[in-house]
Amino acid sequence: xxxIDSHTHVQLKQFNPDRDEVVKRALEKEIWMxxxxxxxxxxxxAVDLCNAYPEGVFATIGQHPDEREVxxxxxxxxTGKHAKVVAIGECGLDYFRVxxxxxxxxxxxxIELFEQHIALAIELEKPLMVHxxxxxxxxxxxxxxxxxxxxxxxxxxxxxxxxxxxxxxxxLDFGFSFTFGGLITFNREFDEILRYIPKERILIETDAPxxxxxxxxxxRNEPSYVIEVARALAGxxxxxxxxxxxxxxxxAKSAFGI
Length: 258
Fold this sequence. Notes:
Blueprint: E1 3-8, H1 19-28, E2 31-36, H2 40-51, E3 57-61, H3 73-80, E4 85-94, H4 103-124, E5 128-133, H5 136-146, E6 156-158, H6 165-174, E7 177-180, H7 191-196, E8 202-204, H8 226-237, H9 241-256
Helix pairs in contact: 3-4, 4-5, 5-6, 8-9
């Protein structure tokens, strides 16, 4: 393969009209993908999508911190044993929309849910796919308590990383990798952190159907657009494009055990 979209959601309803065409468009360009679950239902849909293609399509299973459904641990254990389930998540903490008067209650709920995902990752020996928004201190604290028991190779991946260099250093010390998406094609605020993180720890993503890169801003995102993220990363790091493609593929294969 030429590229791996390390975090996408082709199983979501936005792709109902043309899902097969979207997947085939990426695979024809030698772009593989990891479809990330955010609820039990779309985690199952991500797994079903894996089963529809002989290669190049993988899944993660988990529950986004904003989702309030009951976390069916036993179902996730059973489903997580599928050979093409390569990570646990999207899980983590997100305090962005939490009302101040509900903060303590919501913080406690999200941390408990996150800890269940960590237990699942440990049991299945698969990395975490971590979502973190306005919650880096707590995410670091929760992981630190259990990092010794987490998968040794790559304990997890920080999806759509927006943290500071200090945050990045902590997660680097934990052994985590980082994904970056379409935002880096038009927002220069990430240039410093992209140069700071070692090339061996950077993965690329689309987070499709969200946050399309230039020149597709305002349109539905899709895995084939991850090439624009690779181009942007090469530009920021002043590295040859082909080298960035090769390195990010190698990083994704290592992180996910592909």
